[in-house]
């Protein structure tokens, strides 16, 4: 691994996203959503204005769980296949750079852009709210931002994996959408269906562990479990084994979701060099 | 400098490259010509290590291609590559493009402006590639290939999209590089363009090497006939015919204002001697050697 090569690719990817205002647009979307949720989230109950960090984070989590995977998948699905279809991959690969370095550079640059816009967007809101937050609340909000970045990185990793496997850009975009539907909408329904169909006979015990197979669920658990109010609100403490309800453990699972798809992508990308 | 031995590339039942041997000497300007689908670009990609060989091996400057060992980067740094119809990044300026690739090559960007000047793009250094014409992109691609003063240049259809003046400028740079000892391998469809310029060439067809040598050597090897065009007055047509009558010429045809004579190479000097006996009757004389195109079709058909 040569760091300068990785950095060259990563910085191009990052600055491309800054220059075409992708980072700005995503940060603004996050700011706008977070602000409206913080101030108008309770409008249905007839009140406006900031209520509590717990409720705000819980609402933000349900938003982010849809939004970030989508944004990350759209950001990364053509990382490699786009370069191939564009016709610039051969030239890149003729440079003194390995396929692993190229892939990692692409990932790091895109992850940097995504992380930057997430932190900027939600950070701005955190700053606006900071007067009303105590240290503990700030800590929770920070945890929310960090886990959002991790969620984005996990789905970006999945997207980059798609971009290596897909034979063309169109197929990659289709796969990305399918992946979003699966993890964000279908996965939980499937688990639920298994529970209902087997009348809770099968899968009940394993359910919390099965949730770890979905980075979006890991993100949800990570945030909701750090908040006492919400935990009782959701009644989740009754189903979730305390052995799993540790932020560091869930954080590690999230890291696994970042590393594993990237490793598979790297393996496949290198394989295509020896077997194309 | 570049040695390929028994190189095969099979895609299922399709043999894109079928047992190719190549030897490109150091400092040589070497041409690789063939129809579309003859296997030139596949051969290029294998020599660059972009796709693996099905069988055979390729060495560049003594190092095997495709190994990810310690030599890999050192060999790559010696290589410049201009892909066929090069695709660069529209959102970067010319200078930024070179900066990006110089970082990847691990060379200092300080000479990049000079390099742009060398390919005639100094005026467009700060313009985005989006605004470049096809010829300008090709020149920027060429500048990219020259980053880090490579010892070996792979140029795939390098002059496509260039106007005649730019083509001339391009070959002037190649001559200069040649004088610096750079090894170059070049493909082109425009045979007339490369026949005067390459040291040696290989003709490929259907994935195989049909012939390798100098243009002159291949002409001789093919033993293609050459044409004389002898300009004489109409009443002297018969005199020409009589003067050449005893020679093994393939054809003597009377045309509008000249006699066209076709003969083998080994009869060439005898024909000239015989025509000399006609003295003032011959007003002008042209010899048309078989072109690379004739040679090419001779070998590839």
From TrEMBL, chain A:
GO terms for molecular function: ABC-type transporter activity. It comes from the Bacteria. Keywords: Membrane, Transmembrane, Transmembrane helix. The chain crosses the membrane at residues 22-43, 55-81, 102-129, 141-165, 177-202, 248-267. The keyword Membrane applies. One of its GO terms (cellular component) is plasma membrane. This is ABC transporter permease. It comes from Thauera terpenica 58Eu.
Automatic annotation (TrEMBL), chain B:
Pfam families: ABC_tran. Keywords: ATP-binding, Cell membrane, Membrane, Nucleotide-binding, Transport. The keyword Transport applies. PROSITE patterns: ABC_TRANSPORTER_1, ABC_TRANSPORTER_2. Residues 2-231 form the ABC transporter domain. One of its GO terms (molecular function) is ATP hydrolysis activity. InterPro entries: AAA+_ATPase, ABC_transporter-like_ATP-bd, ABC_transporter-like_CS, P-loop_NTPase. It comes from the Bacteria. Belongs to the ABC transporter superfamily. PANTHER family: ABC TRANSPORTER, ATP-BINDING PROTEIN (PTHR43335). This is Copper ABC transporter ATP-binding protein.
